[in-house]
Predict the structure.
Amino acid sequence: MKRTLFMKLILLYFASAVFMFLLLNTYGLNHYAEKLAEEKKMQLYTQALSISNDYMTDFYNQKLSLSDLSSKVKAMSTMLDARIWIVNKNGTVLYDTTPSDTGTESINIFELDSDFLYQPFPATGSLKSVLKTPMVSVVYKVLYKYQVRGYVVIHYSYEKIHKSSLGFTDTLNICLLIFCAFQGVVFAYIYYATVRPLNKINKAALEYTKGNYSYPKPIHTTDEFGTLSNSLAYMAGEIRNLDNYQKKFVANISHDFRSPLTSIKGYAEALLDGTIPYEMKDKYLGIISFETERLTKLTSGLLTLNGFENRGTLLELTSFDINHIIKKTAESFEGSCKDKKITLNLIFSNKVTLVDADMGKIQQVLYNLLDNAIKFSHHSSTIKISTQEKGDKVFISVKDYGIGIPKESINKVWERFYKTDSSRGKDKKGTGLGLSITKEIISAHNENINVISTQGVGTEFVFTLPRTDGFI
């Protein structure tokens, strides 16, 4: 990747330099030469007008001889570094400031080019037989007593204009070389500023793919590379958490499946080979049934959670009385409460409290919370279940006065298979999935559930549901 990016930058650098050089020395040079030629034409035309006004009237009034006129025009020619013709109305050249070069005296221009003297700015390259090199020419008609008496023609070498444009272009070429050197530094910086962080990010990505998720974040800048580095580090952290979760998941599920399977297998074999006396078979068959129920519950919980994760569970929203559902759920725990002499205290702010939710799923939430509260409550204690309406929400609370949850475990109770150390001895039947399922159900309703707990004092779970004013 580094070599490819390097070659791309080199090609881009040379392509831009060559393009600018060709553009400057072709279009730029020609355009500037044309601009100089236009400016020179206007300058020469002004000088031709000056010669006509200053000298030609006196010449036609015979106040100025041809010899005197020639000397003055010659001086003007030297000053302008141009070639000047004085032409009579018939097109005959009366005076040429450089007759020795071309021998134009007594040449009739109309015979060479009938349109030449009628154009103020004849085309470059006209009169090739007389003008051996391309010239920028201007023609000014000399009027005397409202009649054309002659012409002042001034020629300026186009080669001189081209040399001037070349001189200017050479200066620009020097500037271009300086710019290319600066551009080379800029491209080198771009290469260093892009490839170096990319290499670091690539190295970090390779480390993450090898499972080295503790590899430090490669870039700490605030630019796009820093953002990419942060995203990559975040992704690595999420993968690490997922990897840890998978390991923990496998360990937990292996433990929770192995224990009942070991019991089932051991007691079944003992019953088959006669190790367990026939008269005690009912006891051990009961244990096998108990462990089978535990496996069924674990499997069902995993399937429920998987359904929520894959968005495969659709909610059947209806309007129902949450107080009535709480009463029915509480009745199902009558036997467990009698065994531990636990009192269920139901407190409702209104006789009927209607909510919009999936009644079956919410009943499962209440079952899980009550089951949890009973397991971790002391004998002869109280569990309070209450509903309270606040605005468009109904707050449902399940509060026990049992062993509580350690502070460091509060945020972990929603994790799959998580059990506090203090609960492991008490919760033999628990799968560690109840609160995870509860959290998923409430989240599927776009509502919240919170836990407040103090170790040795008790625990309260509070969740919300949307209130409805409908009728049932």
User: Anything to note?
Assistant: The domain at 2-163 is CATH 3.30.450.20 (Beta-Lactamase).
